[in-house]
Amino acid sequence: MSALTDTQSRLKSWLFDHALPIWWQVGGDTEKGGFYETLGLDAKPVDVPRRTRVAARQVYSYALAQRMGYAGETNAAIDQGLKWLSGPARTPDGLLYAVLAPDGSVIKGEFDFYDHAFALLAYASAFKVRQNDKSLEAAGVAIRDHLLTHYKHPVRGFEEANPRTLPLKTNPHMHMFEACLAWIEAGGDQTWRDVAAEIAALCVDKFLHPQNGSLREYFDGDWNPLEGEMGRIIEPGHQFEWAWLLIRWAAITGDDRFVAPAQRLIEIAENHGTDHNHNVTIFELWDDFSPKDQ
Length: 294
Description:
- The protein is mainly alpha-helical.
- The protein is built from nine helices and twelve strands.
- It has helices at 2-25, 52-67, 75-86, 113-129, 134-150, 170-185, 190-207, 236-253, 259-271, and strands at residues 38-39, 45-46, 50-51, 99-100, 106-108, 168-169, 218-219, 233-234, 274-275, 280-281, 284-286, 291-293.
């Protein structure tokens, strides 16, 4: 326990003393808005195209930092990310462009489920520290309801596009699940719980390998793993993330049937998906746990 506590302390110190200050003081673009995508090794911004998910993730990060007791600037960073999401990144129908140029012009305008899941997480995170700002809740509900109306899978989960494109992917669902949990914890309405319950069940019923308990990444339109190599890919990092979310869901609902699958995902990621000599997670494995891409 002492080693774990020491590691936690070191990581928190790095976060508070280094990461959070530089990503606002240098990473926040106070001239054009939003956040720089990249900092160079000289700690200067590199003005490359900006993924909308980066602004959303920064809102989440600085809102969480505020809740953790970080004494540095958080509100300005949250405001800047929210203005990017509601300004240049917002489409005429209320959704989000995926990638913008630094000047706000659109580079990738096609719908991206992943970016919208992170926007929902951003609004939930901001709402949790600004409970009186009902516009945040309204923004989150509007995006969610649009997804439910226009991008819902006919059985369970969500589509990648409308009209449909394949493969269907588990990773955007993981972040949608995360966003739903954040909204539940922030006091959101029943629909967030309903969507979370559907994704949790879909994960256990379809995403997890029935023999070894690993989580697959790519599926056909009926939620069957893709044939061939793509259907065999598992990512250890995602095993850890899904495990964390399933354990949170079990705590929220009191339903312990999600705990054992989560523990199995952790076991797979630690025993087969971690290079313990270098203390890093392997990028990809095959479903027999042999390395695909280290």
